[in-house]
Here is the input.
Amino acid sequence: MKVKSNSDIDNEQIEQLEYAQKRIRQKKFLYSHFVFFIFGCAISSSLDYIFNVGSDITLLDYSWSFWIVFCWFFILIFHVFKVYVTDRFINSRWIKNQKNKLINIQQKEIESIKEKMQLESKIKAEVEFYNKKSQLVTIIVAASENNIIGNKNKLIWHLSNDLRRFKELTKGHHVIMGRKTFESMPRALPNRTNVIITRKKDYIAENAIVTNSLEGALSIASEDPQPFIIGGGEIYKIAMDISDRIELTRVHHHFEGDTSFPNIDKSKWAETKKITNKKDDNHNYDFTFITYNKIK
Ligand SMILES: NC(=O)c1ccc[n+]([C@@H]2O[C@H](COP(=O)([O-])OP(=O)(O)OC[C@H]3O[C@@H](n4cnc5c(N)ncnc54)[C@H](OP(=O)(O)O)[C@@H]3O)[C@@H](O)[C@H]2O)c1
Here is the structure.
């Protein structure tokens, strides 16, 4: 609710006072009119009927004084109507209120149209941004409700549909990972360019490119329109700031583990897609695929 300022209250009070004064003036004037009418009736009737002034002036068999009283009476009635109906209900104040009401309705509509347009242009700008962007650095991760992603350098759950999705999304792309994640796998992932990050200068990995920093990994993948950062915990942590998208599989269960995924700050990441999956014979837990895009 809008809180009225002091100047609003002052103006409103002044307006009310002026209106009350105007009404008093109108009523005083009506009262004077009524007194004049009584005097006018008395004087014209006396002149006509007592002193016989102009007694030969008639219209439709009625004397001149009758017509004066008759016409004046209607003028008085009109005056009463004006003061108690027209000026009271359909006055300039009423017109102003109606006008303000209309203006308020229109302003509200304009505001809501503006908001809609702003939202649409923001969405359009975001879509354009992602369409134009030559590279979309994407984090792909599966995390439990309490953000656990692994324990003792192993994955904790097996969800075949999640693995299938991982394969579909990352196929043909660079997959960037920490040395420990690489070592947790039996071999380099086929049909992808494996990039391993380690501080070790002489590290050798079969069927994989080794680099010493995340920046180095991204420059190796510079020609890839969508390189994927596939873990683990240490690499996710340093990749959150430079990534554009997160493909999260949220596993709806609490687990104990030693490696976790950072909290997703909802003021920086917008959820754009969600697909829920129920547990079944092949999946021990409910899980949801959620896509987040970084808010630019
Ligand atoms: N649920 C999922 O989606 C998912 C995905 C991937 C992994 N995981 C799990 O995550 C766990 C592994 O994660 P983690 O955090 O222990 O290890 P990690 O992130 O896979 O690898 C850590 C290693 O990366 C290197 N590294 C880290 N920061 C670096 C930097 N700034 N510059 C250069 N090298 C850097 C270091 O290698 P050096 O020690 O050789 O220097 C470090 O020991 C496992 O349990 C795995 O199963 C889960």
